[in-house]
C-alpha cells in the first residue's frame, strides 16, 4: 500500500485537487512507496495568503513565546529522531546511520533557534547628540519561502523555517518532490510544538509551484539549496522580482594532502568524505590534490576505497546506499565514461555494481580516477556521486592555485602536520569553509554555512547570525524627549504591570 503525501495549507492537511501525481520511489529497487499530488496554482496562492494573514498576529507574539515553540519542537524532534531517520532512509536510500546524522544536524539548528531572543537584540547609543538617543530594533520581514533539495530532506528544511519563524516571520516550504515524506513529518511535529495556524505552510510540486513562489508579490525572502543551473535561475528570477534571496548551489571541493600529513588519517578521512552518502552532498571531497611525495599514497587509498560496499538502508554493514534516481545514476555513469574517454586513469570503476536481489536499484560503486587534469569534464562538473578525482601538485602554492582557479568555493580541507602550511592555506585559499585535518568542515549552527564564489548567490548565509539578519530588517529610531514635558505623578505606583 502506497502512502499519500499531503500538503499543509492554512492549518489543514490536504491531498490537493491536482490530477498531476508524482511517484516517490525507493532508490534501492525503484518501486513506488508513496504518491503526492502536485499543488495547484490556487493551492499555492491559498498557502501564501494564509501565511500573510498569520504574519499579522505572529509578529506580535513575544520573542520568548516564539522561543518556547522552538524548545517544544527540538524536544519532539529528539523524541521522534529514529522514526524520522527511518522515513528518511527509506525514501532517500541513505543508510540508517547517515539518515540519523541528517536529522541530528537539523535538530542542532532548532536548538540554536531557541536562543532567538539574544540574536534579535538591537543596539543603543545614548546622547548621540544633546538629549537625543538612537537605538535599533530587529523586526521580521513577512512571508518567507524555502525550496529544498532531495539529498538532505531533514537538515536543510531545518536550516530554514525554524530560524525564519523564530524571527517572527511566516514560512512556505516547498521541498523536493523526490522525498517529501520527511518534510511532511517535520511539519507535523512543528504543528504539535505549538505553531499557530498559518505560520507554516507545506506545498509539494514541480517548477510551476516554484515559479509562483519566485514571482509572488507577498513573498519577501527566498532560501534555496540545489544544483548550479537551478540555483542561478532561482536567484535571477527572484531578484528580478525584488526578493531577498540566498542560493546555495554547486560545489567541487578539494582536499590538499601534504607529504608530512598522517597517512592513515588521510586515507581514513578521504574514504568517507569522498564516497560517503554516495557522494550526494555539496560538501563531499570530490577532488584530492596530492602534493609532492604524497602521491605515493594513492595505491593505498585505492585499496581502502575498494573495500567500501554500498547496501540497503538497514544493512549495518553498508557504507552508503543507492543514488536517488535512475536519471542521477545515468548522469554519473556518463561522466565516468567521459572521464575514461578524456584520458583519466580509472583506478576503480563502480558503474556495474549491484546489490543481490535489488539489481534494479540506482547503485553506483565507489569510483576513483588518477591523473585527472583541470580540462576534464569529471573535474569541471559536480558529479554528485561516489567518485573521487585525484590530482598531483608539486608544491603547496601549486595546489592553492588549482583550488583557487575553480569557479566553486563551498568547502575545502588540508591535511598536514605543519602549522605554517595550514596557516598559509587557510589564509590564501578562496573558499568559504576550510578544514584543517577535518575532511568536511560544516560549521555548527552558531556559526554560518559560508560558501563562496559560484557555490553561493546572495549576501547572508544559512543559519547562525547571518540567517537572523537574512530573515529580519533593522529599524533605527532617533528620539528626543523634552524635560519640560515631564508629567508630575499624583501618587506612587506600587505595582508591577507585566501585561
TrEMBL record:
<dbReference type="InterPro" id="IPR016162">
    <property type="entry name" value="Ald_DH_N"/>
</dbReference>
<keyword id="KW-0560">Oxidoreductase</keyword>
<dbReference type="GO" id="GO:0016491">
    <property type="term" value="F:oxidoreductase activity"/>
</dbReference>
<comment type="similarity">
    <text>Belongs to the aldehyde dehydrogenase family.</text>
</comment>
<protein>
    <recommendedName>
        <fullName>methylmalonate-semialdehyde dehydrogenase (CoA acylating)</fullName>
        <ecNumber>1.2.1.27</ecNumber>
    </recommendedName>
</protein>
<dbReference type="InterPro" id="IPR010061">
    <property type="entry name" value="MeMal-semiAld_DH"/>
</dbReference>
<keyword id="KW-0520">NAD</keyword>
<feature type="domain" description="Aldehyde dehydrogenase">
    <location>
        <begin position="13"/>
        <end position="477"/>
    </location>
</feature>
<dbReference type="InterPro" id="IPR016160">
    <property type="entry name" value="Ald_DH_CS_CYS"/>
</dbReference>
<dbReference type="Pfam" id="PF00171">
    <property type="entry name" value="Aldedh"/>
</dbReference>
<dbReference type="InterPro" id="IPR016161">
    <property type="entry name" value="Ald_DH/histidinol_DH"/>
</dbReference>
<dbReference type="InterPro" id="IPR016163">
    <property type="entry name" value="Ald_DH_C"/>
</dbReference>
<dbReference type="InterPro" id="IPR015590">
    <property type="entry name" value="Aldehyde_DH_dom"/>
</dbReference>
